Amino acid sequence: MSATPVHFSDTERAALGAFWHPVAYVSELGDAPCRVTLLDVDLVLWQHAGALSVAHDQCPHRGSRLSTGWVAEGQLVCPYHGLHFDGQGRCTRVPAQDPQTPISARLQLNTVLCVERYGLVWVCLSGTPRLPLPEWTALERADYQQYASHADWQVSAGRHVENFNDIAHFAWAHAGTFGAREQPLLLPERIEETPLGLRRTTRVAQAERDTFTDAAIVTEADYRYEFTYPFASSLRIAYPSLGTEWIYSAASPVGPAQTRIFILKARDYGQDEPLADWIAFQDAINEEDRRVVEQQRPRAIALDPAAEGHIVADAWSLAFRRRWASFGVNGPL
């Protein structure tokens, strides 16, 4: 079994860079520049006059990190020689030379297409998105209880996505939270391919228990998964006695074996219940997943079907893996 690569190849970066990827919450941005990494590419984010700009985190003058600089009157200032850049990446000032001297056209930042949605900053490295952003409509409901968080896993984005969309592991990996080990058998299901990704609906046996106790009552809930390529997952859970919960997850590939996961949740019940309890329960589930997934080897998916064995419950992951060839991705994911 091949090892996970240390860096993305140019081919993989070009293919994956043609999609939208979240890189930060808007709430994380302040008055100073913010540094993030996507597909091994270091980026700098900064706000100016209510707008947002993203560029490669490298000054075109002498290669210094712009994210260690600052923002002055909406201009991104390089910490090395004080060059100023506007929101379009144009160099507007070189303090060491006379203001009347023309500024070289080569002093232009390598800017990146960006958009804000669902409280996230999304970027497309290629500048021409292959697919639109996912539709996470529950987050647009002001009457739903909501929260957002993130986590960093030492694993590929592909491994995380398969874990999120896999239900065969519930009874085993999540026995401490909602997994019903006494009912591991899954119902037959149909995986539907859509223009944007994959869809499926199924019924899942799960345990109703306090997060940190063993007492449980097993019930069934209706699960509807909606996946958008490259790594955006949506899960709607209809509980028979409570209401409906939506879990949205977007895996941002920092590197081949490093992923930042953005998690956003909404529910139409329990509006007066403490938000902290809901967060703690989800955190416990995430930790159960992380402990298992970070131990998978290799840390990235080998897209060759012969690289791993499969079971009937792997229908979703096999459909997910097959589609990547049409996007020009054939190596580890």
Q: Specify the structural class.
A: alpha+beta
Provide the CATH topology of the largest domain. Answer: Naphthalene 1,2-dioxygenase Alpha Subunit, Chain A, domain 1
Number of helices: 5
Proportion in β-strands: 25-35%
Q: Give the uncertain stretches in residue-range form.
A: none
What is the β-strand count?
17
> What integer is the average pLDDT?
95
Number of domains: 2
From the 3D coordinates, which CATH architecture of the largest domain would you assign?
Answer: Alpha-Beta Complex
Report strand order across the widest sheet.
Answer: 11-17-16-15-14-13-12
What is the H level of CATH, i.e. the homologous superfamily of the largest domain?
A: Naphthalene 1,2-dioxygenase Alpha Subunit, Chain A, domain 1
Rg (C-alpha, Å): 22 Å
N-to-C SSE string, H for helix and E for strand: HEEEEEEEEEEEHHEEEEEEHH
Largest pleated sheet:
7 strands, antiparallel
* Portion of residues within helices: 10-25%
- CATH class of the largest domain equals Alpha Beta
Shape call: globular
Task: For the record, give the distance between the C-alpha atoms at the N and C termini, rounded to a whole number.
Answer: 14 Å
